[in-house]
């Protein structure tokens, strides 16, 4: 059966109705899941298997039958391990129906149907008794209900209910125990993702400073955790202030409580500094003795860093303290970990929490509006002083004392820059009440409330009265729009430019003037595992799972592109970069469709670039790859489509030294979802047997990764800009996007999109809210957030996206992941 679903088109602002399969949301969920990542996690699987064997043996040694309760069974893998280890019977609970159906088939295919019962319910709905789902309580509890934050998937309520109603007292549990660790650090880079810094503007009258309102200073920030691949963060980006502290442990073999609690650890700072950020991770012990341990520790805290398991479904957490606090070396403090049933947060106390009534029991929530409007990458952009200086440099060349400036970007401070540079009249359009309220606060704190006109309406609805009868001489945008989840959604700026054309005066300037889309094929060191078919996992046949994901990926909703934080995933180029499309914002959106075609030669081995990490390269195993043709059809939304009207300069050649970038990104919106959910959607795709399939994760408006047909691991990485070659090491080193993802908040930095690239091309359709963005039938678009001018910075996510062309911008500079303005080179190990 087909159903109609409404979609808000973030590029045009229109609402469109699309025909969908009645189970389209199931297919999308499956396609974007992390099942493949978990099945490829050898360390996880082996440790679980070992722990299950120990648990079954302990029960058998007591002369009892081994009855296993497996909550969140997924493919049924852990239940099959239990039966193989000697369990008498397993009850495998899976609430997600498509997954439960797959588990039934997998269990049957592996010959365990007589000893494993799959129950398609939430564990809290399972009944015990002669007529119930289970005849009696189980004496072994096996679960894998953990996320990067440990308890974010509801592990505590599920364990609490299971101990009360489904398992025997003092049962065996796998895992047996979990411990959460924390380390206090100072990091201006990470702190810039959470607070608004004073912004310095050099003008002809001297330096002007844009100060944040007091409530932004005192706001505890976004409540979401930021989970990242901490191994890819350069140690130069933070200063360690404490040893690694074990904050609290949970014994899963005993009654678990989901009630709010806090746990403190006394410590003495290793050095003086400013406490800003808490880095956190956990480990799980599969047996009571703690001999079988699976840890998420970063390399500097890992017992065997050379044998670390790469995984993306469990990473490490970044927590921001409510306020930064000075600490002195040797002066004792208390780090306090708070948690409720789903979330963890931290605070720093100078006295014992038992004696301090100020200990924060409630989860921190933004009360300043800024963290609801700006995601963490956005904070990083605004706090990037180099980025601000480049905007100022560009604006100086086009602004005149009698200029009338119209700024079109959500929550942008470009209007303040224009005012400080001497513009006669400045208008800024804020289409949402949140951005309108936030800017009023900022203007008031800087005594500008009567000097900059805020218009609260959609730009296309502007009237002459709104502009006080004036004609606009400069249309200005970053562009940044909170409704944009993908790079090309920010083409809304082009639509706005077209809609306000009647308000532009003769000779009016538009900034940015143009953007261009570039691409390069890359090979990821590890990311391909996310979508690689598993086949056999620890001796069990899970091909049915592979087939289910493959079918899900065939649905349009599942073929959408979604950004990836490339700095977290080391890769190397397998081709020369090439320019695909250009967009000229000086002209209205043309009616004619855009079309660009070409070929790209894929290279083998190190010919195309140097690996970004010290691990052995897998490129030698790649087959000889012939040329493959790519075809990109233009975007069309409503009656508009895009066509290039101005070419950018060709790619330059020469040596380039890759450098470290800032941290991740996420989709815009209420936020932070890098903060690309945390994970703001689950990434990735089949990179071997299913090379043309795609799914995604993370967020942000940034470079993209696309599968070329029948190539396997190599991906197509899409960036924005021109001139200067892409570095051979394209991996520098998510928040739910405004509440629209699954990954939680994340840092600022380059993000890639993964999408399907079919061998044959087709017509384009409009980019929809749900990220329709494959090369056939949907816009691939290279339109991300434009950067004016086109420089890049470690902390500015959009810096990797656009090339701006116009007066005063210089020769035009292109920044891709791996290229930033800092002087720190990419290292060849885990910290790259």
Radius of gyration: 27 Å
Quick check: average pLDDT?
A: 73
The amount of helix comes to 10-25%
Termini gap: 49 Å
Instruction: Note poorly predicted spans.
Output: 605-832
Give the percentage of residues in beta strands: 15-25%
DSSP strand tally? 37
Outline type: globular
Instruction: Sketch the major β-sheet.
Output: 7 strands, antiparallel
The structural class is: alpha/beta
Output the number of helix runs. 15
List the helices and strands and how they pair.
Blueprint: E1 2-8, E2 15-21, H1 24-31, H2 35-39, H3 42-61, E3 67-71, H4 77-84, E4 89-93, H5 97-109, E5 116-119, E6 138-143, H6 155-165, E7 167-174, E8 177-186, H7 188-191, E9 199-203, E10 206-210, H8 214-218, E11 226-228, E12 239-240, E13 245-251, E14 261-267, E15 273-285, E16 293-295, E17 316-327, E18 333-339, E19 344-349, H9 370-373, H10 376-382, H11 385-396, E20 404-408, H12 414-420, E21 425-429, H13 433-445, E22 452-455, E23 472-476, H14 492-499, E24 504-511, E25 514-524, E26 536-537, E27 540-541, H15 543-552, E28 562-564, E29 571-573, E30 578-584, E31 595-600, E32 628-633, E33 636-637, E34 640-641, E35 704-707, E36 715-720, E37 752-755
Parallel strand pairs: 3-4, 3-6, 4-5, 6-7, 20-21, 20-23, 21-22, 23-24, 35-37
Antiparallel strand pairs: 1-2, 8-12, 8-13, 8-15, 9-10, 11-17, 14-18, 15-16, 15-17, 18-19, 25-29, 25-30, 25-36, 26-27, 28-37, 31-32, 33-34, 35-36
Helix pairs in contact: 1-15, 5-15
């Amino acid at each position: 059966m087909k159903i109609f679903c409404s979609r808000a088109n973030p590029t045009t602002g229109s609402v469109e109705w699309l025909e969908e399969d009645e189970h389209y949301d199931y297919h999308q969920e499956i396609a974007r899941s992390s099942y493949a990542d978990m099945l490829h996690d050898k360390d996880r699987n082996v440790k679980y298997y070992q722990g299950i064997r120990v648990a079954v043996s302990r029960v058998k040694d007591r002369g009892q039958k081994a009855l296993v309760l497996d909550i969140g069974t997924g493919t049924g893998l852990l239940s099959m391990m239990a039966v193989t280890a000697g369990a008498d019977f397993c009850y495998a609970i899976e609430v997600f129906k498509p997954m439960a159906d797959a588990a039934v088939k997998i269990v049957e295919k592996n010959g365990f149907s007589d000893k494993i019962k799959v129950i398609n319910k939430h564990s809290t709905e399972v009944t015990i008794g002669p007529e119930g789902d289970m005849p009696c309580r189980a004496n072994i509890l096996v679960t894998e209900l953990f996320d990067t934050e440990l308890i974010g998937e509801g592990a505590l309520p599920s364990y609490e209910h299971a101990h009360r109603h489904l398992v025997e007292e003092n049962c065996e549990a796998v895992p047996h125990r979990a411990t959460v660790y924390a380390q206090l650090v100072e990091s201006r880079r990470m702190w810039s993702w959470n607070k608004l810094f004073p912004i310095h503007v050099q003008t002809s009258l001297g330096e002007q400073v844009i100060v944040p309102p007091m409530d932004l200073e005192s706001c505890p920030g976004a409540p979401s955790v930021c989970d990242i691949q901490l191994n890819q963060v350069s140690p130069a980006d933070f200063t360690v202030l404490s040893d690694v502290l074990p904050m609290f442990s949970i014994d899963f073999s005993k009654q678990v409580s989901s009630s709010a609690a806090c746990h403190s650890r006394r410590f003495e700072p290793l050095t003086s500094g400013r406490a800003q950020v808490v880095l956190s991770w956990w480990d799980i012990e599969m047996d009571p003795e703690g001999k079988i341990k699976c840890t998420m520790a970063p390399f500097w805290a890992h017992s065997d860093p050379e044998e670390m398991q790469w995984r993306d479904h469990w990473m490490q957490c970044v927590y921001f303290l409510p306020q930064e606090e000075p600490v002195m070396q040797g002066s004792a403090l208390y780090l306090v970990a708070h948690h409720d049933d789903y979330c963890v947060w931290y605070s720093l106390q100078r006295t014992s929490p038992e004696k301090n009534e100020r200990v924060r029991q409630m989860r921190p929530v933004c009360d300043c509006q800024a963290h609801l409007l700006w995601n963490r990458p956005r904070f990083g952009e605004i706090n990037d002083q180099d980025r601000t200086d480049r905007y100022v440099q560009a604006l100086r060349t086009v602004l005149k004392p009698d200029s009338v400036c119209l700024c079109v970007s959500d929550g942008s401070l470009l209007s303040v820059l224009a005012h400080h540079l001497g513009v006669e009249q400045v208008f800024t359009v804020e289409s949402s009440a949140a951005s309108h309220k936030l800017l009023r606060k900022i203007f008031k704190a800087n005594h500008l409330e009567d000097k900059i006109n805020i218009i609260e309406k959609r730009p296309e609805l502007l009237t002459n009265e709104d502009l006080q009868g004036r004609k606009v001489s400069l249309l200005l945008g970053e562009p940044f729009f909170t409704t944009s989840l993908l790079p090309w959604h920010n083409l809304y700026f082009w639509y706005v430019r077209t809609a306000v054309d009647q308000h532009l005066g003769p000779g009016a300037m538009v900034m940015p003037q143009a953007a261009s889309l570039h691409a390069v094929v890359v090979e990821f060191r590890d990311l391909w595992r996310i979508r690689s078919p598993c086949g056999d996992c620890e001796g069990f046949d899970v091909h049915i799972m592979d087939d289910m994901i493959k079918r899900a990926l065939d649905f349009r909703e599942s073929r959408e592109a979604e950004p990836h934080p490339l700095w977290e995933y080391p890769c190397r180029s397998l081709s020369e970069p090439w320019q695909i499309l250009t967009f000229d914002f000086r002209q209205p959106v043309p009616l004619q469709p855009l079309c660009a075609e070409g070929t790209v030669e894929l290279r083998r081995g190190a010919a195309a670039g140097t690996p970004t990490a010290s691990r052995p390269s897998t490129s030698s195993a790649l087959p000889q790859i012939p040329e493959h043709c790519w075809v990109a059809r233009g975007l069309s939304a409503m009656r508009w489509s895009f066509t290039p009207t101005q070419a950018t300069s060709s790619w330059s050649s020469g040596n380039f030294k890759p450098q470290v970038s800032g941290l991740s990104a996420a989709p815009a919106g209420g936020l932070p979802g890098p903060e690309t959910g945390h994970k703001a959607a689950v990434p990735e795709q089949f990179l071997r047997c299913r090379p043309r399939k795609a799914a995604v994760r993370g967020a942000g408006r940034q470079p993209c990764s696309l599968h070329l047909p029948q190539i396997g691991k190599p991906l197509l990485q899409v960036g924005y800009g021109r001139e200067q070659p892409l570095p051979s090491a394209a991996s520098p080193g998510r928040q739910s996007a405004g509440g629209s993802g699954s990954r939680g908040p994340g840092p600022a930095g380059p993000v890639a999109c993964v999408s399907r690239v079919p061998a044959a091309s087709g017509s384009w359709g409009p980019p929809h809210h749900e990220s329709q963005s494959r090369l056939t039938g949907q816009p691939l678009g290279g339109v991300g957030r434009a950067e004016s001018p086109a420089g890049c910075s470690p902390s500015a996510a959009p810096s990797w996206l656009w090339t701006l062309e116009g007066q005063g911008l210089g020769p035009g500079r292109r920044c891709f992941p791996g290229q930033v303005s800092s002087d720190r080179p990419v290292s060849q190990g885990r910290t790259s």
